[in-house]
Amino acid sequence: MVDLCVLYDKLRFEEKSIYDKALKKGIKVQMTDAKNITVTTDSKRKELSLGDVILQRSISHFRGLYLTSCLEFLGFPVINKFKVGETCGNKLLTSLTLAKHKVPTPKTHFAFSASAAMEAIGGTGFPVVLKPIIGSWGRGVFPLRDDEVANMIFEMREEDNNPLGRIYYIQEMIQRPPRDIRCIVVGDDIIAAVYRYSAQNEWRTNVARGGKAENAPITKELEEIALRAASAVGGGVLGVDLMEDEQRGLLVHEINNTVEFRGASNVSSVDIASAIIDYSVTVVKR
Amino acid sequence: MKKECQDCSAEINVPDDALVGEIVTCPDCGADFEIASKTQNEVDLKPAESVGEDWGQ
ipTM of this model? Predict the structure, then answer.
């Protein structure tokens, strides 16, 4: 029987659903606190009782990422792989990977100083969207609509002591309905798709920002693009986020490595936790 | 199960179906605690981590 290990650092709805569902399916499952694991360069896989396959569900991106690299070093299969987490946790790497694989994605400028960033905007004009290259739940994502605000935000970033703040990720503002599409991709399948509508007086669509989910139809186009995007970053269990551009159709703007699916679960009839468990089992048997 | 808040001594109610790793909040002072261990009749709490900049998806 497959022994599944769910690694967490703070239990959310998602980890609890996976645990409950695994028990119902009769799968051997353990919940392990990532904060309690230590690994050394001499460690051996058999010294850590973490089962046959590990679902990395840490809420802290860096904890999850680097712990995954240690566990892969020991030979554990981890979902998702380190390389996938590294790409998806970084918007710059994600954009480059999507572009490299010809997955439709918003045009994005990368600049490495405030003055170069202003120059890049000068070439395209306002409005644009400034995003931190590493960040989540929509934090630090700003629409820039004029020089004055752009200069202020860049000045703040330059004064701040965060070296990543001096890497400028500037994306075209997509003309879209007040929603985006979150697709849950598990292995080679798209399991669920939901529209995420922004909350009132909020421009971002993150459920963590009060966004509301509604079931979305899985069209051929959506399926094709979401699966291509997932495969471009290395596959696994992923949340592929897309916008509906009025002219160009669907564009992938982000891929989430530790996908939250509470919003999708509430409105979709598909059992997402169950699909994730079934996929984890196939990873062991491969 | 009842536990005493480590910060303000108020009573925190830990639901019977709560799992290790879940967060409980003190109703009086609002401090968050993570369930460190739990058996049929014992529950241990530890201060929860505060939200990190790299939390979430």
Answer: 0.74
